[in-house]
Design brief:
single chain, 189 residues, mainly alpha, 6 helices
Length: 189
């Protein structure tokens, strides 16, 4: 991706850490949570690889079409899985964004700073709007709601019950960090 190396490395660290956490979430006893965590892990690691600063490592020309194929297949899988769980539609949008970024990077591979000056393309703007909304909604969902009159206190996991990887706020935090990282990556296009 284009941009300063220091922010690129921070983005790599954020995405790789999120991908690793999602791999740990795959240890869940609930099959749907494992599948969702697998999609999140693929996205996290894919974003980490894509965010490596170009000054450090410039992938060969065939890497960008390879990314497009991998994330195109992930998008098709997400479309198929969306039949039973609507969250996979977000995976579809994320995979579409990754294919789009890979295509842009493949197009600019021989031209390091080839910007047309025509402003933000429509698809980039649409993806930016989607991810801004997603980040705001995900952040809002992470805000704790205090127990008060007429509200039940949140249920806590009992020892031997659900594992830490099954906690919904952990999945939300992973998705929030990946949404922020996706925004940063789209802004560098």
């Amino acid at each position: 991706m284009h941009g300063p190396a220091s922010s690129g490395w921070l983005l790599v660290a954020l995405c790789a850490a999120t991908g690793a956490l999602c791999l740990l979430r795959m240890r869940s006893g609930v099959e749907e949570q494992r599948r969702s965590a697998g999609g999140d892990a693929l996205m996290g690691f894919g974003m980490a690889v894509m965010a490596v600063p170009a000054a450090v490592f410039s992938p060969p020309w065939w890497a960008w079409p390879g990314y497009a194929v991998v994330f195109g297949a992930a998008g098709l899988h997400a479309l198929w899985a969306a039949r039973t769980d609507a969250h996979h539609l977000h995976h579809l949008v994320g995979a579409t964004a990754m294919v789009y970024m890979a295509a842009v990077m493949a197009d600019s591979a021989g031209r390091p700073h080839a910007h047309s000056g025509a402003g933000v393309p429509l698809l980039t703007g649409t993806l930016l709007l989607y991810f801004v909304g997603y980040v705001l909604l995900s952040g809002y969902r992470l805000v704790p709601v205090p127990a008060g009159p007429g509200r039940a206190a949140p249920a806590r996991a009992v020892a031997g019950g659900t594992g830490w990887g099954d906690r919904p706020e952990l999945a939300r935090a992973c998705r929030l960090s990946m949404g922020i990282a996706m925004l940063a990556m789209l802004l560098t296009l």
